């Protein structure tokens, strides 16, 4: 099998439509695509304003009309675990926003309403209301003016599981309130309750005006069995023991925030205390909530949080504005994480040990949710059309943290992954960043809002300069604090600071779709260097871009010139009088432009670019292109092996990894030097990913020759390296191979599990079926996805005794797992089995209970191919 076990078996048809966002940040972004020279192709904008703005079928998605101002929300809640219901009493303080009102409309999804009352001092007056299961329209009995406040009390039961399920690429469900293992019948899973409010799902557990342009202060009284810990927004004011052995926790947030940011979590969490000192001010609580058996690793997982708080506060010249910061890890979360005000929630993938953190740290997602506390929580997008004001900034917060903590090269490499994510999505759709014509608000949660948005912010920083960039952000935050904003508020802040009209930048990058595709050529003749630039994107759907950029020119081993130029036409030509031979022309020396760039260069120019290009992305691109040249013509291996031998010692680990990968199955010149270089990396490199790649290449060259190196790596502290070593050792002819590798059968780490799965599949060791079944039962969401695919291959040629045990397990996953892409993987694995009436009946049962039309379409496609 291919050494990259996370990519080896992505055999699910059409999987590109089933994305795990982000952030997320779970997948290792190894790609063979060039950074500067992605293949040019015509992209079709499927949702551009210019194309559909006049259609009668499109609704303009502006900000929600504000009829009332929700001033304060008080909730008193307890739970019916068996029926997965919340028993609640809500008291809402409101006033008309401007015009007088005699009725109140509240969002309240799937409730049983017991009573609605107007609170008048110590008295209550019952109010009439209409309720359609989604919204309540309450008759206030008289007109109220904008200077009159009133209090509404609603006694209700929330039944979130009764609601139809919807979701997005980033947030899989809109149920709002979730009971995990409510009947305690899953032995390996704790009982928990948690909420997820974005976009407008909190109104599935409390009545509110569920709109991003609403802001409310909040009190929450949570009554639970005394064994449970609770968490909510703001500070814990008190805990009160009740006569029935329950406890009521009182949480209070005095600063206003959007209703979708309200949260609560209930579970048997360990609370690990930390703290942070506001620059020049008081100390605030910083706490980490997680399952007790992971509490010893809380600081390993979240320990950079206080440093992040200090860095972001100083960078923005705006101290963290909230009274505390907590982070909690829950089971079966429907997203990667959520930035609820003062209490971010994270998926269970963050439940890791210190050893697992040797391979992968979670700084990016932690920084993302924390940066939201300025961009999204303090200043909230006034409509979902303006979502990039939340998500683009949070994604750029990842870059800023990496730049500060790990250096510019690590930040650029991290951002390159965002670039590739956006380009991949752009093959299917190109839409405005700020878009007012989406079909569903959940459509806004895509790589445009996250990845493209962050890249656009980086270009804006490069254009105005870092000092002006952060001064403008400070102005934007202070001007709109505890309120809402739209894209023009951001533009005006930048214009006020920079003194420049920036409509051109915001119009082409935020309010139009697509990105530039550039074809570049250069030629030197008789002392004249000519550089030509064509914009080749479909100009019927994408604008001609105005692109301020720098061009670097190297002569005599040095960068002699760096010219700032501006491209604002579909064809530009630049001429420079240079007598000496030009060794390199590098378009966009800062490597900051969001564009697909095709610039043909000779092998000598690419080699020179690797050694002299400066920016890590320029060097990376050179190696990638040289690797393509070698792949297309193996005769070039002897020319390029010296470059890649040198790259084995590159100061940046990502380029060492590229170099190690280059020598996979290598048979060219300098073989002895290559093997020595790979052995050095396998044994001594600080980065586990590099050690693992070096081991894989050594094995591909000669598995038995390097058996001892690989066997030694079985004891490496990194699970990534152990997994590579297991894969490598499984290819050797060692007579003790089975005994040595089976010693790792009890490990639950994904790298070990998937490596063993690969071994058992390849060697057709059908005696390990129970091992597969056990691991499927224990696997976390992301791991389960890959393991199911291995299991499908494992059972595809297995004896009947194995398949008979496998079918009901996979059928259960296909029918009942909460994640669509996992259900799809299970169905596909079943489809690999020999056709029979019983299997056909199982597939029909799966389709009968499947509610996703998209999945049903996939199932038809899969069955049609067989």
From TrEMBL:
Keywords: Aminopeptidase, Hydrolase, Metal-binding, Metalloprotease, Protease, Zinc
One matching Pfam family: Peptidase_M1
Cofactor: Zn(2+)
Keyword Transcription regulation set for record: no
Annotated coiled-coil segments of the chain: none
Record organism: Agaribacillus aureus
EC number: 3.4.11.2
Residue span, Aminopeptidase N-like N-terminal domain: 72-261
Reaction(s) this enzyme catalyzes, per UniProt: Release of an N-terminal amino acid, Xaa-|-Yaa- from a peptide, amide or arylamide. Xaa is preferably Ala, but may be most amino acids including Pro (slow action). When a terminal hydrophobic residue is followed by a prolyl residue, the two may be released as an intact Xaa-Pro dipeptide
InterPro entries (UniProt xref): Aminopeptidase_N-like_N (IPR045357), Aminopeptidase_N-like_N_sf (IPR042097), ARM-like (IPR011989), ARM-type_fold (IPR016024), Peptidase_M1 (IPR001930), Peptidase_M1_aminopeptidases (IPR050344), Peptidase_M1_dom (IPR014782), Peptidase_M4/M1_CTD_sf (IPR027268)
Family: Belongs to the peptidase M1 family.
The protein's name: Aminopeptidase N
Boundaries of every Peptidase M1 membrane alanine aminopeptidase domain copy: 304-509
Signal sequence range: none
